[in-house]
Design goal:
With 108 residues, this protein is of the alpha/beta class. It has 4 helices and 4 strands, in the order E-H-E-H-E-H-E-H. The N and C termini lie close together (8 Å). Belongs to the anti-sigma-factor antagonist family.
Amino acid sequence: MNQQVQVIKLSGIINTANSQELRENITHILNSDTKIVLVDCQDVTFMDSSALGALVLAFKTLRAAGTKLFLCSINEQVRILFELTGMDKVFEIFNNQDEFNQMILANH
């Protein structure tokens, strides 16, 4: 597999204080030859609107650079936030990393 896949694991509460870390991760990815980014939210307990904003910004920034961003393992709170804001239509969300690997890596 020649396409680079980078997994970003988020954990705990993602809010204004630490969504900056997510932005820095994305900037780092832009400077690499990564083509697919998977944000694994398995250990995320809560996400607020600033975290969602950071994800949307990351999605747009990466897409402009030809890199795809996917999410997996989101909990109920995050899923509801995504549904309320219509972001579940923007992001491709997988149940877990295994599903992502089967769907995405098999097709690339």
